């Protein structure tokens, strides 16, 4: 959602604050939260006809779900991420020594994924939620650094939250903004042109967009809190208060979305933008 990509830009970016256990958060992301974006990944892969012949570079690839989906379609995938805890989980999924054409690289820059023996990438993905944090400039720099690795005309995919009124989770994320004030790095609502502004700032040409329903569903409130914290969108709030206070406020804000059986369900819409390398 850092967002890194590659800070995890999109929403689980940057290094964890002292009050967050990086290994636990990575596991919570992998086991609870990452699957919420599965409809987004599947829609993008279908629209761009990902498959044999696709060379994909995943920025801030996290624990590798999107890469796994692409590799299973026959794509050659490379993931780069600065967080060893997330990459360790990605390696469990992708097994670079196994049958899938997958490579994982720990690094702070897309340049770390350069491979002199390979042809340019035909697809670059930045599946972090652009606009969730006020760090779009960082993402623009990351994308600009990735362009020399991509073929001319290659697709670059950015993702972000849809309109706040279409995202039930936005009301919960306001807790992050309230607790984090006045620290920089708090969540903010998405703006209509967030994706386009980042793409153009990186020297890319927007070439189509779409919206995808990505509901957040959890087995119970505890799972919801763990999953949401794993995005990194509450890091500033945790730094400003503490993990217990954030958990308490989150639990209260989730109450309207609890079902009689104890599960938590929040409808959301995510937006993606396809841009092209000039």
From TrEMBL:
The protein's matches in InterPro entries, at most eight in alphabetical order, are given as:
Methyltransf_25, SAM-dependent_MTases_sf
Q: Where is the signal peptide?
A: none
Asked if the Swiss-Prot or TrEMBL record annotates the protein with the keyword Transferase, the reply is yes
Gene Ontology annotations of biological process type:
methylation
Supply the alphabetized keyword list: Methyltransferase, Transferase
Q: Which GO terms describe its molecular function?
A: methyltransferase activity
Residue ranges of the Methyltransferase domain?
A: 57-134
Report any Pfam family annotated for this entry.
Methyltransf_25
Keyword Transferase in record: yes
Name by which UniProt lists this protein:
Methyltransferase domain-containing protein
This protein's species is Streptomyces seoulensis
